[in-house]
From TrEMBL, chain A:
GO cellular component: a single term: plasma membrane
Name this protein carries in UniProt: ABC transporter permease
GO molecular function: transmembrane transporter activity
InterPro entries: ABC_transp_permease
Record-annotated membrane-spanning stretches: 24-46, 66-88, 95-116, 122-145, 152-173, 203-221, 242-265, 277-295, 302-320, 326-344
């Protein structure tokens, strides 16, 4: 009985294509290299490497507050990851999420302060939608510049991020600053924020929205004609044109959707975790989205795994930083190394060639054996 | 060192990155001073074998031995250093440079820091004279005909010291007249002690030119034979494994009204140069109109205009009464355009999408494939499974990525998609180039079936056999003009077509007028 089921697993493993197996191997090796480097750095820099490593690897399970921190980190990762997956699926290297998140957060905060401070449930929903609208307008500028004038989307969105930051800083310091403070606004209304789900933690209702956004992104990209069209454009624009799709139109739509999700990400983050608007620099959640999309191969289906993975070690590094005095930036090195290896197309290509040859060789032997049997 | 050790490939096995085993334990050897043909169907693995000999690809298994010495050909540079030269089907020349500059590219003679134009011309002249090539070293490549460009490629290899010259289907781009000229020169090279590996599936040419032939079938070597001991039909049988009837049976056409109409059509390239000059023709529903011509005589701009890829030009171009140039590709397809493009990998299919996704890419708007906001996956699967079966696509299932299929199967997926649409007008550009006999045969039969069920079909093909077999009416294009029109293809010979394709002969305006037939 047990023999039979194990055979089933072996068979199933073999039925996974060589490409997929190689992808998994590549991912595993990239993670191993990243972790290896992280461990070496910890051992070299920590006063007490053993406890530092323990925190790095096990922190989320050591206390409820650490675990809750991990969930908090997951929320923006899922949302910005979904936004980037949709834009990258159309092969649009739009890097403008930082700007949408920043101003989306600011507008949601202002909405919570001035527009709907005392309106529970509907208030936060309104503020988040407003954030999404802001994200749409921000992304629309570079996206349309590309559509109309062929402005390089990478450069224009990077610039756009700084425009958003400095416009936001102007409003923060010169228009909406609480005079009693150095760098933040008046407090957001008590009913304008997102509800805490588990008392005693900071896990907020944004988690539901984040999961919903990931599901939305997956269904959109893989279950609708719009998504198929977007992916067709992303995979081969010449082919997309040939079958009658509007290549530039679909590129535009994918960025609009990404921009809306970006704005909503900022709003959720702001309303879920902050009492006042106090961001004086770009948040980094937009870059996280790019990392997430790379880990998930632009397929939202894999975002939860990628988010849990990153959030887990980020929490570990965070705890380690104040418990064992190891710099938290270590986790950026760790993530950067992994992204580099995952992005390197030729990484382990020699192994791939061996794997694909071995597979073809095996099939050849099976064929020959079958032929031999027939002859006999 | 025995004769056969001059060049030996032993037990070569090559698996491409998409998992296709292109060479399976292939053995091949050739002597000094012979013309050795490699025959096989398209996709049999001839080109793959030669790419490994030229260092473009590396074998997974096996040895390459040159003059008794095992070599590792890790790049074309290494292959050239070992005396191997190759002329590809697609020439690797810089159009804006002169013949002498192209030939000495990378091995430029210099005086001080300056390129020595005179020396380069001398080098070119001396090699060209030595082998009886009559070439002007100062001519620009872009002004040369295909046949002369090919000579430049051969000279390029000779200047670099090639003793073994690989020619990959050299006659595919040549007219019959240019072909016989090439053969004279190849024989001269053989006399001078060069070894020529001649890849071809034109058996008549193999028979008349080559000393020995190695036949490859589905990645295996079938054997090496003296050409004088085997007949054309022997070779063909060895290539395919069974006897095949290469002609597709076809009844008389029963054409309806003109569906595609081109009247006084003129088209221009990006530089404003006229590439299609005042041509008028029609394609009626229920007939196949063939366009013959040496590549680059206006076929590409014409196809691009008909399929909506490029606009501009003057004159009438309409499909089913609609002005093609005021419509997007999307609208053209809605009105019944189907297009089998020449370039199947970059235009006709998306290798990274699944077979299902490729097959319905042009049909995503169909009601049948949508259920509310979502795609109707079960129906899509059902239909693609049916098409995979109907069109005999060899694959692991509809979810397999198209890039993992062989060329012939990719083409079947593409053809299935195009012919399962409305397909009132089907534009076929080299529909069977580079695919195996079985797939070729099935695609040609499909096209005849589509004709019989009322589609208007425009066929552009460099394969004259295909053109003569499938076309009901035939047009010859030369330098963007119609130079010949045959209302009845059954009496036309390849030889005769060749004269028109070369521009040697030209019909009168009255004869050509017939191409524009409204009924």
């Amino acid at each position: 009985m047990s023999n039979k089921s194990s055979k089933g697993i072996a068979e199933r493993l073999r039925s996974i294509s060589v490409q997929t197996r190689h992808e998994i191997l590549r991912m595993a090796v990239a993670i191993a290299i990243g972790l290896g480097i992280a461990v070496v750095l910890i051992v070299l820099t920590a006063k007490d490497p053993e406890s530092a490593l323990t925190y790095f690897v096990g922190a989320p399970f050591m206390s409820l507050s650490y675990f809750s921190h991990m969930i908090e980190v997951i929320i923006p990762l899922l949302m910005s990851g979904a936004a980037v997956c949709i834009m990258f699926s159309a092969n649009q290297f739009n890097l403008g999420l930082e700007g949408t998140i920043y101003l989306g957060g600011l507008v949601a905060a202002l909405s919570g302060i001035y527009l709907v401070p005392n309106l529970p449930v509907l208030g936060p929903i309104f503020s988040i939608l407003l954030g999404g609208l802001v994200g749409f307008f921000i992304i629309a500028i570079p996206a349309l510049l590309q559509y109309k004038f062929k402005a390089n989307i990478v450069v224009s969105t990077l610039m756009m991020n700084y425009i958003c930051l400095y416009v936001g800083l102007y409003f923060l310091f010169d228009v909406f600053k609480d005079p009693a403070s150095s760098q933040h606004t008046y407090p957001i209304g008590s009913d304008a924020g997102l509800a805490v789900l588990i008392p005693g933690t900071k896990i907020h209702a944004g988690l539901f929205l984040a999961v919903a956004v990931v599901i939305f992104a997956y269904v959109l990209l893989y279950k609708t004609k719009l998504g198929l069209s977007i992916r067709t454009v992303g995979q081969n624009p010449k082919f997309a044109k040939y079958v009658g799709l509007s290549v530039s139109g679909l590129a535009l739509v994918s960025q609009f959707i990404g921009g809306v999700i970006g704005g909503m990400t900022g709003a959720v983050q702001m309303l879920g975790l902050y009492q006042r608007f106090e961001w004086t620099s770009l948040t980094g959640y937009g870059w996280d989205g790019v990392t997430m999309a790379i880990f998930a191969h632009n397929n939202p289906k894999y975002l939860p795994f990628a988010a849990i993975f990153l959030a887990y070690f980020r929490t570990g590094a965070w705890v380690m930083s104040f418990k064992a005095g190891v710099q938290i930036d270590l986790v950026s090195v760790f993530e950067g190394v992994m992204v580099l290896f995952i992005m390197a197309e030729k990484f382990l290509s020699g192994t791939y060639r061996k794997m694909i040859f071995a597979d073809a060789d095996r099939k050849r032997k099976e064929r020959n054996a079958a032929k031999g049997g027939e002859a006999a | 060192m025995s004769d056969d050790d001059f060049l030996k490939l032993e037990h070569i096995t090559k698996v491409y990155d998409n998992g296709i085993m292109a060479n399976d334990d292939v053995n091949f050897s050739t002597r000094k001073g012979e013309i050795h043909a490699i025959c096989g169907e398209n996709g049999a693995g001839k080109s793959t074998l030669m790419k490994q000999l030229y260092g473009v690809e590396q074998p997974n298994e096996g040895r390459i031995i040159i003059k008794g010495q095992e070599v590792k050909l890790t790049s074309p540079q290494v292959a050239i250093a070992n005396g191997i030269g190759m002329v590809f089907q697609h020439f690797m020349l810089v159009p804006s440079l002169s013949v002498a500059e192209n030939i000495t590219l990378g091995i430029e003679p210099t005086t001080g820091l300056k390129f020595d134009t005179k020396k380069a011309a001398e080098i070119t002249k001396s090699v060209s004279d030595k082998y009886g090539f009559d070439i002007d070293p100062a001519a620009r490549i872009r002004d040369l005909t295909v046949g002369v460009k090919q000579k430049v490629e051969i000279l390029k290899a000779l200047v670099r010291g090639a003793e073994i010259l690989i020619l990959d289907e050299p006659t595919a781009v040549l007219t019959p007249q240019e072909t016989s000229e090439l053969f004279v020169q190849l024989r001269a090279l053989r006399e001078a002690g060069h070894t020529i590996i001649f890849i071809s599936h034109k058996l008549g040419e193999v028979k008349s030119l080559c000393d020995r032939v190695t036949v490859i079938r589905r990645g295996h070597t079938v054997g090496t034979y003296n050409v004088k001991d085997v007949s054309e039909s022997d070779i063909s049988r060895l290539m395919v494994g069974v006897n095949v009837e290469s002609k597709v049976p076809k009844g008389k056409a029963n054409p309806g009204p003109a569906y595609l109409v081109a009247k006084d059509l003129e088209l221009f390239d990006l530089n404003g140069k006229r590439v299609v000059n005042d041509i008028s023709f029609t394609v009626r529903s229920g007939e196949i109109v063939g366009i013959a011509g040496v590549e680059g005589n206006g076929q590409e701009p014409l196809v691009n205009a008909i399929t909506g890829f490029s606009g501009g030009g003057s004159g009438t171009l309409s499909m089913g009464g609609f002005d093609i140039r005021s419509m997007s590709i999307h609208e053209l397809r809605e009105k019944g355009l189907a297009y089998i493009p020449e370039d199947r990998m970059s235009t006709g299919a998306s290798g990274t999408l699944s077979i299902c996704e490729n097959m319905i890419a042009d049909k995503v708007d169909w009601k049948r494939y949508n259920k509310g906001l979502l795609l109707n996956q079960p129906v899509i699967k059902e239909d693609t499974d049916k098409w995979i079966k109907d069109y005999d696509v060899l694959c692991d299932g509809g979810n397999q990525k198209v890039g993992m299929l062989s060329g012939g199967n990719i083409q079947k997926v593409l053809v299935a998609r195009e012919l399962t649409g409305l397909a009132k007008l089907i534009v076929c550009d080299q529909p069977t180039r580079g695919i195996d006999v079985g797939a070729t045969d099935s695609i040609r039969r499909r096209l005849v079936n589509m004709r019989d069920s009322g589609s208007a079909i425009l066929l552009i093909s460099a394969d004259l056999g295909e053109i003569l077999n499938l076309s009901d009416r035939l047009i010859v294009l030369f330098e963007g003009e119609i130079v010949a029109y045959f209302p009845d293809v059954s009496k036309v010979t390849e030889e005769e077509l060749g004269y028109y394709m070369l521009g040697v002969k030209r019909m009168s305006a009255g004869q050509i007028e017939g191409a524009y037939s409204v009924q």
